[in-house]
Amino acid sequence: MIIKIILVGCLIFMVYNLFKTLIIMNKNDPNQPSMSKFIGRRVMMSAFIVILILVGIMTGLITPNPTPH
To answer: Are 62 and 54 in contact (CB under 8 A)?
Structure first.
């Protein structure tokens, strides 16, 4: 159950960075940090989530659906 909570937290963090980037893009303020900082965080978090899911499946903490149809 803890791995699922971590995954949901990571997804919420990704959505937060998505909207933070949107706000920065619309304001176009040179004093704000660049958009690539927040987009890079999203990419790193996506890679972390994929690795976490694969490790969870390999260790048996997450059981995939046996019949996907």
So the answer is: no
- For 8-34, b/e burial (b = at least 16 CB within 10 A) is eeeeeebeebeebbeebeeeeeeeeee
CA dihedral 56, 58, 45, 69 (to 10 degrees): -80
Residue that has been written with the tokens 């949901």 in this structure: 8
* Torsion over CA: 33, 39, 43, 49 (sign): positive
pLDDT in tens, 9-36: 999 999 998 888 888 888 877 787 888 8
The pTM for the full model equals: 0.77
